[in-house]
Amino acid sequence: MKTEAKILICYNAPVSIFTVYNGKPVHDEPIGTDLSEKSFLKELNIINKSLSEFYTEVETLAIDRDVQKSIHNINEFNPDVIYNFVESVEGIASYEWCMAGLFELLGFEYTGCNPASLGNCLNKARAKNILNSRGIITPHHITLNPNARFTKKDITINYPAIIKLLSEDASIGISEYSVVKNYTELRKQFKFLTDTYKQEVIIEEYIEGRELNIAILGNKVLPVSEIDFKGLPEELPSIVTYDGKWIEESIYYNHTRPVCPVDLNERIKNKIIKAAIDSFEALDCRDYARIDVRLNKKNIPYVIEVNPNPDISTDSGFARAAAADGVTHKELLYTIANFALTRKKIYDTQVKAG
Fold first, then answer.
1. SS3 233
2. Would you report the helix, strand and coil content of the chain in percent, each value rounded to 5?
3. Please, are residues 86 and 35 in contact by the beta-carbon 8 Å criterion?
4. Domains identified in the chain, total number
5. Residue 34: which residues within 8 A CB-CB, separation 6 or more?
6. Which candidate in 55, 95, 148, 211 could, as Cys together with 89 as Cys, close a disulfide (CB 3.0–4.6 Å)?
7. Rg (CA), the chain
């Protein structure tokens, strides 16, 4: 029997705002299909159909910068829960947390992390500072604004280093050129990123070693995943690039393979899981998140990023980790929706009780 509830699936209407997304010059663009936001649109029907098996009413709403229209449409449907898939608004990632704030202001319960958590996680430096304050190990880092004037002595990070956009997700701006071995390479990639994206950058110590993903669902840690870079040409750094995530038929896409569950020494596994749980709590994550970790040659786990509201499409790493734990994709979607619905029921009960 279906639960009597109205679910509104909110997502960002696809739009392109950058000339390139994969962090390298246009002449280096790969031949292949970009699966980023386009692939999510294909998933919408699957998500809608799956949730419709559990709840009486399910609708979708594309979010853009017409805030009044969004408010009108949300209020008109009057959902019990908003399934929040909004990661940006018209391509602007920093509006992600604003939409969660809007849902709160309108008085609607929603899935996933709260505005503060989303904003803190998006700003990589701020997230690392919060994690460091809790004793969680992250790579050393510095930030530079687009107009920064600096010399070799101002770069206090050991090489190799990795340079990224400070406040973007989905690996936007990350390519093989992101890992730099010296000051000359750093200056070149800094210029490219700031000229192309007009944003602050973060420069981090590059941690050589295994890349692991830890998915957390509610208060449960799902089986740990590892990114297998086997077959990647030796001259290319073993990192998850934009191409590796989204560009079909690219070299990185063909050699960035998630493995789940991964075989790990129990002691090391426990250290990684502890770092993930501590990070989830430090950044006040809720419902679901993915923590990316690099395990260095001494088996010390470095938290690279905390990803709130990560991709949960059918072929995502999160769905794969859930499947390894015996949770189907439909059950995953239901579980996340039910977290929010449970919060609403508790709130409604408290209001009635006065």
1. coil
2. 40, 20, 35
3. no
4. 1
5. 21, 246, 247
6. 95
7. 20
Measured in whole angstroms, how far is the alpha carbon of residue 212 from the centre of its chain? Answer: 14
Local confidence pLDDT in tens for the 354 residues of the chain = 899 999 999 999 877 777 788 888 876 655 556 666 567 778 999 999 999 999 999 999 999 999 999 999 999 999 999 999 999 999 899 999 999 999 999 999 999 999 999 999 999 999 999 999 999 999 999 999 999 999 999 999 999 999 999 999 889 999 999 999 999 999 999 999 999 999 999 999 999 999 999 999 999 999 999 999 999 999 999 999 999 988 888 999 999 999 999 999 999 999 999 999 999 999 999 999 999 999 999 999 999 999 999 999 999 999 999 999 999 999 999 999 999 999 999 887 777 676
Q: What are phi and psi of 125, to 5 degrees?
A: -70, -45
Q: Is the dihedral of CA 95, 100, 101, 106 positive or negative?
A: positive
Cis peptide before 25 (omega within 30 of 0): no
Q: Residue 342 pairs with which residues in a beta bridge?
A: none
Helix (H) or strand (E) holding 161, with range, is strand 161-165
Burial of 198 (0-12, 13-18, 19+ CB in 10 A): exposed
CATH code assigned at 47: 3.40.50
Burial of 215 (0-12, 13-18, 19+ CB in 10 A): buried
Is the separation of the CB atoms in 26 and 78 below 8 Å?
no
Asked whether residue 148 is assigned to any structural domain, the reply reads no
Distance of CA 89 to the CA centre of its chain: 15
Kindly state whether residue 170 falls inside one of the protein's structural domains: no
Would you put residue 264 in left (φ > 0), alpha (ψ -120 to 50) or beta? beta
> Longest C-alpha distance within the chain, in Å?
66
**Residue pointed to by tokens 């890349």:** 211
